[in-house]
Amino acid sequence: MNAPAPAGMLQALPAEHRHRLMRFAREVSFPQGTRLFEEGGKADRFWIIRTGSVTLDMHVPGRRAAVIETLRHNELIGCSWLFTPHSWHMGAETTSPLRAYEFDATAIRSMCRDDPALGASVTQWVGDVLAHRLRSARTRLLALYAPHGGGLL
């Protein structure tokens, strides 16, 4: 059974923190089929989807990359930017034309260090998203590769 998706930034952060983050937002767009990042790459930015969709995938040795989750409107693309070593744990690819807000991770981490309340809000939000993604990854990988009837779910 899938847990509900975590709240988007608009619901997860207090208005004051949302407004402060949005001052750093840059509007970007990508065509369908664009790789936003690769597993193991430097996590130096993140995005909030305005329109379009993105799949998160995970490298599986000896097999094709496994699609873990599809993200849509108001969802966070990228969690690894907040936590050391700041490298992507999954890959991401647009599955339709994408319009998003892009944020520079270094600037946002600095802002979070300077304002502990903001830092706590952002960490809670991203942590909730990350926990959801880990559950989704486990469920998806078990569904793809576990023996049927193994009782692992």
Automatic annotation (TrEMBL):
<dbReference type="InterPro" id="IPR014710">
    <property type="entry name" value="RmlC-like_jellyroll"/>
</dbReference>
<dbReference type="InterPro" id="IPR000595">
    <property type="entry name" value="cNMP-bd_dom"/>
</dbReference>
<protein>
    <recommendedName>
        <fullName>Cyclic nucleotide-binding domain-containing protein</fullName>
    </recommendedName>
</protein>
<dbReference type="InterPro" id="IPR018490">
    <property type="entry name" value="cNMP-bd_dom_sf"/>
</dbReference>
<dbReference type="Pfam" id="PF00027">
    <property type="entry name" value="cNMP_binding"/>
</dbReference>
<feature type="domain" description="Cyclic nucleotide-binding">
    <location>
        <begin position="9"/>
        <end position="78"/>
    </location>
</feature>
